[in-house]
Amino acid sequence: MTMAPEGAAVAAEIWEQSRDEIRRRLADLSGEFGTLVAGAVETGWHGEIENPDHAVARRARMADIVVTSASQGASTGDSYRTADPGSLVLRAGRPVLVAAHGATDLPARKIVVAWKDTREARRAVADAAPLMTMASEVTIVAVDRHPDDWIRDSVKDVASFLAGHGIKPRTEIIKTTDDEGNRLVDFFASVNAELIVSGAYGHSRLREWVFGGVTRSLLDEVWLNRLMSS
Question: What average pLDDT does the chain have?
Fold first, then answer.
């Protein structure tokens, strides 16, 4: 399909107008950001006109951790207005803290590790260890339809690893015939967990991320604070 020169000129003009509006909005947001963090911590502002997932993932090379929140744009697929937490955790190469909807702080006194003996979960435990040293209660929970000695041994090993960092976790192994993701979410609610630590499992298919069942369940629970690593 071709476009007449007049049409191309109009499209270019509309795009320039849109870019100008975006630049003005970025300037406004920069001012709001400066007011919000003034005197609190050392910060820097970067505003870009780009796919949010790509921009944030690239800037993650400067950070220890990425902090984000699931917003309406991400849940409705509006990928050009907000970063998608699931995409970020698989792209960033850094732990991603997905804050609960409407959260204004992160107490993290009660932390639950959703354990599965995988590379991603091991990475998440190591990434979250500094936060767990400040918690008053840490629980390692494994949910499986057929818990065996392999699972029990892996949970013990994680508890020993954390103990070496001065953390004394309790452990839970839950046998379930229900969906593992739903059972985990029920457990989080039962112990009033303030932060969930887990690996994130997914792969790219036809330009979209396809997530494992438990990962998708955690991403969908917007009332949870989640620290996820991949």
Answer: 86
| Rounded Cα gap, residues 62 and 149, in angstroms | 41
Q: Which two tokens stand for residue 124?
A: 């998440």
- Record the pTM: 0.84
Q: Which of 15, 93, 74, 8 is nearest to 49 (CA)?
A: 15
In angstroms, the CA 152 to CA 32 distance is: 49
| CA–CA dist 90, 114 (Å, integer) | 18
Write b or e for each residue in 173-196: b if 16 or more Cβ atoms lie within 10 A of its Cβ, otherwise e: eeeeeeebbebbbebbeeeebbbb
Q: What is the largest CA-CA distance in the chain?
A: 71
Is the pLDDT assigned to residue 74 strictly greater than 50? no
Question: CB–CB of 89/230 below 8 Å?
Answer: yes
CATH superfamily for 110-229 is HUPs (3.40.50.620)
Question: pLDDT digit string (tens) for 153-199?
Answer: 999 999 999 999 999 999 999 999 988 889 999 999 999 999 999 99
Residue 77 one-letter amino acid:
G
Q: How far apart are CA 114 and CA 185, in angstroms?
A: 10
β-pair partners for 99:
69
The alpha-carbon radius of gyration of the chain (Å, integer) is: 21
Give the residue extent of every domain in the chain: 1-45, 110-229
pLDDT band at 6 (very low <50, low <70, confident <90, very high): low
State the angle between helix axes of 119-132 and 149-163 in degrees (0 to 180), rounded to the nearest 10.
30
The SS3 assignment for 63 reads coil
